[in-house]
Amino acid sequence: MAGLLEGKAAVVTGGTSGIGRAVCRTFADHGADVVVADVREEPREGGGPTRELIEEETDAHATFVECDVTDLDDLEAAVSAADEFGGIDVMVNNAGIVGPQATIGEIDYDDYRSLMRVNVDGVFLGSKVAAARMVDENGGSIVNTSSVAGIVGAANLTPYCTAKGGVRLLTYSLAAELGPEGIRVNTIHPGVIETAMTVEDSPMVGTEEGEAMKATIPLGRFGQPEDVAGVVTFLASDLASYVTAESIVVDGGMVGTL
Q1: What is the pLDDT of residues 36-76, one digit of tens each?
Q2: Of 98, 222, 224, 255, which is most buried with the most CB atoms under 10 A?
Q3: Nearest-5° angle of CA 191, CA 194, CA 198?
Q4: Rounded to an integer, what distance in angstroms lies between the CA atom of residue 25 and that of residue 42?
Q5: Taking a C-beta distance cutoff of 8 angstroms, is the pair 171, 243 a contact?
Q6: Do residues 38 and 15 touch, judged by C-beta distance below 8 A?
Q7: Known catalytic residue: 160?
């Protein structure tokens, strides 16, 4: 079905690469104009900038805004950029990093704090800025990217799991607070999705460990960014008009079998 987001304007942080890029493209396919907000314009996986991809291959409009999600001014600028398209309707707080992968005894506290600033503070600040606009514009949808690591802990990933668990509870709290204002807030929990993060930053795809994990996934494969983008599109659309304070796991059934 085309046109699920017709007439809507969306801001997607971390929109240049991976899941964020797929979300931007899928939103555009469904009629939304998109603000691609990221610290870099060139996608990590190669190819042209997401903004160009959208304008060349869809009927939607897009713009790129350089945005560090730990910087409130940058997020204000990203949300303000949606005014070009009629004002923000959808905020996707997607930007995140893996950060330190070590035992708690080995992790440097500054590295831990850096991860928290991106993965938790960035979602808090993005939601804060978007919600202020959405209250004035009669509602909207906020979708936060957590992880299966926000549901099930993993050794040597304590900062990441802690942050993603925080995003989950932040989502529930905001949904309760913002519901009366017509703002829905939900979170997604991707499993192993084939992106630069799982190939380079925290190698899983293409490794022996990864193949062993893949064998335990009921659907028998790792996810693609588009698998996640479809769920985000549903949550952003009016099909989900009565869905808020929800966590949707997109992992091929992995967590459900643990």
Answers
A1: 999 999 999 899 999 999 999 999 999 999 999 999 999 99
A2: 222
A3: 80
A4: 15
A5: no
A6: yes
A7: yes
User: Distances from the Cα of 212 to the Cαs of 158, 204, 215, 240, 246, in angstroms?
Assistant: 22, 10, 5, 35, 30
**Residue 219 in tokens:** 């659907």
Beta-carbon neighbour count of residue 82 at 10 Å? 26
Q: Where are the alpha helices (DSSP H) in the chain?
A: 18-29, 50-57, 72-81, 109-116, 122-136, 158-178, 196, 208-214, 225-236
- Cβ-in-10-Å burial (0-12, 13-18, 19+) of 135 comes to middle
- Helices 225-236 and 18-29 cross at an angle (nearest 10°) of 50
Q: How large is the C-alpha radius of gyration of the chain?
A: 17
- Dig out the tokens for 106 from the structure: 């080995």
List the end-to-end C-alpha distance of the chain, in Å, as a whole number.
Answer: 34
Phi, psi of 234 (to 5 degrees): -60, -50
Distance CA 198, CA 53 (A): 23
How far from 36 is each of 15, 114, 210, CA to CA, in Å? Answer: 5, 23, 31
Residue 6 bridge partners (DSSP) = none
* Residue-level pLDDT at 100: 84
Q: Could you count the other beta carbons within 10 Å of the beta carbon of residue 169?
A: 12
Out of 109, 112, 160, 242, pick the active-site residue: 160
Assign 143 to helix, strand or coil: strand
